[in-house]
Amino acid sequence: MELKEIVKKIYKIIEDKKGDDIKVIDISKISSIADYFIIAGANNINQVQAISDEIDFILGKEGILPKAIEGNKNATWMLLDYNDIVVHIFLKEDRVFYDLERIWRDGTEVEI
């Protein structure tokens, strides 16, 4: 599966799980850590976990496994690292606090 197809699939999973304010940022020209960041908000800790679990489950069925998953059952921020794609699922308050969109503002926002 091509990278952009995986990005679209992750976006759709987040959307289906009612994630908020989903942003896809192409950071390939400004960083070597990944090509894309996908950032989304959630209303509560259970939703943060549900979104990250669903991404891991659906991509896993297609043989796409994360290099790492950071966060736990009580996490307000889950990070799923798929090498070229890094997914950040935040509790809304934490998203505002960490403001990754500002930090990575030199990247290019991608419309899905």
UniProtKB/TrEMBL annotation:
GO CC annotations, alphabetized: cytoplasm
GO terms, molecular function: ribosomal large subunit binding
InterPro entries for the chain: Iojap/RsfS/C7orf30, NT_sf
Alphabetized UniProt keyword annotations: Cytoplasm, Repressor, Translation regulation
GO biological process: cytosolic ribosome assembly; negative regulation of ribosome biogenesis; negative regulation of translation
Stretches of the chain forming a coiled coil according to its record: none
Compartmental location: Cytoplasm
NCBIfam families in alphabetical order: rsfS_iojap_ybeB
Annotated protein name in UniProt: Ribosomal silencing factor RsfS
Gene designation per UniProt: rsfS
